[in-house]
């Protein structure tokens, strides 16, 4: 925890930390603020690769966030560390492959259970089936329209994430357990 007021840590994770995970972090910070949880929830983003280390957020991601009214802070891409995995209360990978990488870094079941696919919180996302059906689209290889799709997928899951964290903070033991994909049953 970075300061005395932070009680819950959320990390969004993608490949290089220049598109999906920083977009998700921006959206979630906004939603937690609006839900009155901005002072108790810390949201950060990382990647599983260091290929973009030090790079700013992709300009297309910056444009789509700004066009939808989100403030876009300065950002420098970085790779998640094993210690950071252990320190998070909730890890939100963008894809099944990111989830596998995080679970491998977790090195214990308790920490691995904190890994939940971001789209598992979207009530309209595909039910059941392989984990990869919950992947957030990678906009990197496309045009600006791909970033709109990615933002829509992130926004569709954001309220579910806020409610999950609210329940965690309240110590709600009655919440439903998650299945192996992280989807709440």
Overall number of structural domains: 1
The biggest sheet, with number of strands, parallel, antiparallel or mixed sense and barrel status, is: 3 strands, parallel
The CATH architecture classification is 3-Layer(aba) Sandwich
- At the fourth CATH level, what is the homologous superfamily? Response regulator
Overall 3D form:
globular
Tally of DSSP β-strands: 3
Distance between the termini: 29 Å
Oligomer: single chain
The topology string of helices and strands comes to EHEHHEHHH
Helical stretch count?
Answer: 6
Mean pLDDT: 91
Percentage of residues in strands: 5-15%
Q: What is the CATH fold-level name? A: Rossmann fold
Notable characteristics:
alpha/beta; single chain; Rossmann fold; 3-stranded parallel sheet; disordered C terminus; 185 residues; 6 helices
Structure description:
The chain is of the alpha/beta class and 185 residues long. The chain has one domain: 3-Layer(aba) Sandwich (Rossmann fold), CATH 3.40.50.2300. The protein contains 6 helices and 3 strands. It has a 3-stranded parallel sheet with strand order 2-1-3. Helix 1 links the parallel strand 1 and strand 2 (41-47). Helix 1 packs across helix 6 (144-170) and helix 2 packs across helix 6. The protein is globular, with a radius of gyration of 15 Å. The model is unreliable at 1-5 and 173-185 (pLDDT under 50).
């Amino acid at each position: 925890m970075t300061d005395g007021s932070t009680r819950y840590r959320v990390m969004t994770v993608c490949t290089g930390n220049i598109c999906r995970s920083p977009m998700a972090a921006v959206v979630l910070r906004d939603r937690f603020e609006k839900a009155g949880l901005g002072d108790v929830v810390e949201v950060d983003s990382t990647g599983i690769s260091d290929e973009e280390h030090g790079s700013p957020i992709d300009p297309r991601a910056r444009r789509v966030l700004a066009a939808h009214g989100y403030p876009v802070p300065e950002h420098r891409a970085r790779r998640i560390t094993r210690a950071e995995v252990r320190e998070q209360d909730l890890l939100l990978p963008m894809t099944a492959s990111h989830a596998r990488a995080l679970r491998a870094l977790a090195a214990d079941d308790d920490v691995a259970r904190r890994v939940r696919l971001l789209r598992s919180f979207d009530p309209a996302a595909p039910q059941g089936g392989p984990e990869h059906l919950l992947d957030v689209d990678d906009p990197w290889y496309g045009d600006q329209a791909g970033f709109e799709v990615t933002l829509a997928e992130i926004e569709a899951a954001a309220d579910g994430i806020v409610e999950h964290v609210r329940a965690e903070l309240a110590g709600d033991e009655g919440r439903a357990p998650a299945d192996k994909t992280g989807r709440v049953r």
